[in-house]
Amino acid sequence: MTAATVAAPDIAIEVTGLSKSFNGREVVHDLSMQVKRGTIYGFLGPNGSGKTTTIRMLCGLLTPDSGTGTCLGFDIRRDADKIKRRVGYMTQRFSLYQDLSVRENLEFVARLYGVRDPRKAARDMIARLGLNGRDEQLAGELSGGWKQRLALGACTLPNPQLLLLDEPTAGVDPKARRDFWNEIHALAAQGLTVLVSTHYMDEAERCHEIAYIAYGHLLAHGTVEQVIAASSLATWTVTGADLNELAADLADKPGVDMVAPFGTSLHVSGRDHAALEATVSSYRDRPGQHWQHGAPSLEDVFIDLMTRARDNFQ
Amino acid sequence: MSAVEGPDREVEERPFGFWRRSYAMLVKEFIQLRRDRVSFAMIVMIPVMQLLLFGYAINTTPRHLPTAVLLQEDSDLGRSILKALENTSYFQFTHEVHTVAEFDSLLLSGKVLFGVEIPRGFERAVRRGDRPALLVAADATDPVAAGSALGALGTLMQTALQHDLFVGDPPSLPFEIRAHARYNPAASSRLNIVPGLVGTILTMTMLIFTALSVTREIERGTMENLLSMPITPVEVMLGKIVPYVLVGFIQATLIIGIGVLLFGVPVQGSLLLLALLSTLFITTNLSIGYTFSTIVQNQLQAMQLSMMFFLPSILLSGFMFPFAGMPVWAQYIGEGLPLTHYIRIVRAIMLKGAVLENLRYDAIALVALMLLAMTIAVSRFRRTLD
Ligand SMILES: Nc1ncnc2c1ncn2[C@@H]1O[C@H](COP(=O)(O)OP(=O)(O)OP(=O)(O)O)[C@@H](O)[C@H]1O
Ligand SMILES: [Mg+2]
Q1: Residue A228 lies in a domain
Q2: Quick check: CB of A216 below 6 Å from ligand 1?
Q3: A27 in ligand 1 pocket by Cβ < 6 Å?
Q4: How many CA within 13 A on the CB side of residue B369?
């Protein structure tokens, strides 16, 4: 275990061996990770894998059962107050006041953080969010996409150094999602560190680094390329007719770890390259189907990680 | 995000952070209260309704109460007295009896609330100037009904009989009215009720307002956001209590105002002192309600706990039953309830014109209870979601 309290200045988050149990069930297990300052760090994993729990431990909302770590150089156990002052946390569920207007919510946040001239800060943020004309609308009456924008605005308003965004784009339309990500990149360019959890593969690919967590275990981390390479997965893409029968047929063949339909094609993946090759060769020359060897997609890798994790930890 | 100067910039610590954050919380609570029309209506409706109910429906001057007459002689004077009694419209003669036993049994069974006895030789005694006694017996199990009728008896008779009998200057009744409140000699009057009501209504509304405050944040999911920001338990508490002090103050003014204007309750002592100590009492109740909300899991439990506190407050504070008449153990519990002290304070200021000197003990007790509640609340407030 490293002396986490003396984190290097270019490290925003450094945690070692974090664990957390609820009612005797361990939901985060021995989790270690490092996030460099100024990067966008994607946090992926299936439902209930412990993403929210980890993020809450990072900002002092939950106390880890064991493990140590620093956030912006402050101890996550002892210096929660200092961390809170410098971190913007956007919760998974909308948690601003539904019965306060957009402006009132922002002014509340600005006052709490001691921002100079809260009214002006709120006004500026409303303009920046493109919410002009909606300042007096109650937050609870905003559409899903606007709620997310408002929540992002509220947590960036006090000029944090680190943003923890928990599924900020869940249920948001593609255009709004793209705008949201442009915003996040703009913030990172200004020097902010962003840790963002998501279920979307395209969003994962827009991150500088990603981590994959399942059943509370951190299974992979690094850049997208590193994660794909580390999976040592070989993937074949099949197009053509009768793919459903083929999928059923292939599922229990040697070397095949995963068969997943992707739109009009089928992804056949396996870690044992030779065995997969042998199986595929007997199918490859069938008429009406076209086989192509390719790199696995991030999704292939994640589904494979998750399947293996289920076998190991369940 | 307008001016991010880079990852190394330090967070500026501005002065008065404590007050600023409490103020932020306070503004937020005010806005929420203003938006919550039902709660807002309750602030005005509860005191007005309660007071009118108690004041008119329950405490109203009773009329046409069933009354028995025990006539021991048949005289002109006796008849005009009865006529005068009936004219007051308090009494309505429903039974005429001739023996004391009948008279008693009617009262005992509750068939009548009053009994009037005109003794044998009454008229002659009056003429002789002996000032004989006219017995008016009342069933005082309902002190309110009996009390007001008995209280008004003397004056009413005097006015009613003015033309029949005129003796002396200033005119006085040539006989003595011997009013006998049976079963409950210490009949309390309406004057006692209004001051007590101020405290009771404030206890109920203040408790509930703050008892819901923390659980509401948890149930609506806003607590997670609030806890992720740099605010301390004391700041949250202040922000959540202070707006309601104002609300409580408005309620107290409303109740006392109605009491004075509609029911003619006097304010003998200093209004300023009454306002100050009322504010203290309001804050104490708000602190207790807030403490409840840091203990319970949801809003239903918060309501139940408030009720659990409210009932003994009504029963053991001296509002319903005279404090001195309670068993010692109940008095000990009573001393631990803010309402007990406040009822003493209000009654003393409004009816007896007491000054702070006289009320020092009760005021200190209220401060102590408030600090105790606040300490528990701050230490119970959970700063994490664990
Ligand atoms: N306060 C709590 N008490 C008990 N169990 C909890 C609590 N918070 C989370 N859990 C459990 O811990 C597990 C991990 O939850 P968590 O919210 O961290 O997952 P997640 O990765 O964020 O999932 P999702 O993608 O659905 O948001 C879940 O099984 C959840 O039921
Ligand atoms: Mg989650």
Answers
A1: no
A2: no
A3: yes
A4: 26
Q: How far off is chain B from A4, nearest CA to CA, in Å?
A: 19
Domain extent, residue A133, equals 3-223
Indicate the pLDDT class of residue B324, thresholds 50, 70 and 90: confident
Please tell me whether residues A198 and A239 are part of one structural domain: no
Instruction: Between B366 and B136, name the one with better pLDDT.
Output: B366
The candidate with the shortest Cα–Cα distance to B255, out of B75, B47, B24, B36, is B47
Which of B221, B223, B228 is closest, CB to CB, to A84? B228
**Residue where the block lists tokens 């870690």:** A271
Per-residue model confidence as pLDDT tens digits over A110-150: 999 999 999 999 999 999 988 888 999 999 999 988 999 99
CA separation for the pair B36, B43 (Å, rounded):
11
User: Is A112 close to B21, i.e. CB distance below 8 A?
Assistant: yes
Q: Is residue A302 part of a domain?
A: no
Task: Report the share of chain A in percent with pLDDT over 90.
Answer: 63
Amino acid at residue number B130: D
Query: In B, residues 57-86, which contact A (CB 8 Å cutoff)?
Result: none
Token representation of residue B222: 């806003």
* Backbone angles phi and psi of A243, in degrees to 5: -70, -30
Query: Helix B233-263 vs helix B17-35: angle between axes, to the nearest 10 degrees?
Result: 50
Q: Bridge-partner residues for A26, per DSSP?
A: A21
- Is-above-0.90 flag for pTM? no
How far is it, in rounded angstroms, from Cα B199 to Cα B339?
6
Q: What are chain B's domains?
A: 65-182 (3.40.1710.10), 189-381 (no CATH)
* Residues A269/A228, Cβ–Cβ less than 8 Å: no
Residue A253 sits in a domain of what CATH number? 3.30.70
Lowest mean pLDDT among A67-71, A297-301, B87-91, B193-197: B87-91
How far A78 CA lies from chain B's nearest CA (Å)?
A: 13
Assess whether A109 and A210 both reside in one domain. Answer: yes
Same domain, residue pair A151 and A27: yes
Tell whether A109 and A215 lie within a shared domain: yes
The complex's ipTM? 0.88
User: Is residue A311 one of the residues assigned to a domain?
Assistant: no
Number of domains in chain A: 2
Question: CATH number, domain at A190?
Answer: 3.40.50.300
How far, in Å, CA of B120 to CA of B130, rounded?
Answer: 14
Cβ within 8 Å, pair B227-A112: no
* Within a domain: A51: yes
Which one, of B207, B206, B199, lies nearest residue B320 by Cα?
A: B199
What are the Cα distances from residue A28, in Å, to A31, A64, A74, A165? 7, 9, 21, 18
Nearest to A228 by CA among A214, A212, A206, A247: A212
Query: Alpha helices of B212-298 — where are they, by DSSP H?
Result: 213-220, 222-227, 233-263, 271-295
Distance CA(A230)–CA(A221), nearest Å, equals 9
Tens-digit pLDDT profile for residues A41-85: 999 999 999 999 999 999 999 999 999 999 999 999 999 999 999
Query: Are both A150 and A245 inside the same structural domain?
Result: no
The rounded radius of gyration (Å) of the Cα atoms in chain B is: 29
Mutate to test the pocket of ligand 1, among A18, A51, A203 (most ligand atoms within 8 A of CB): A51
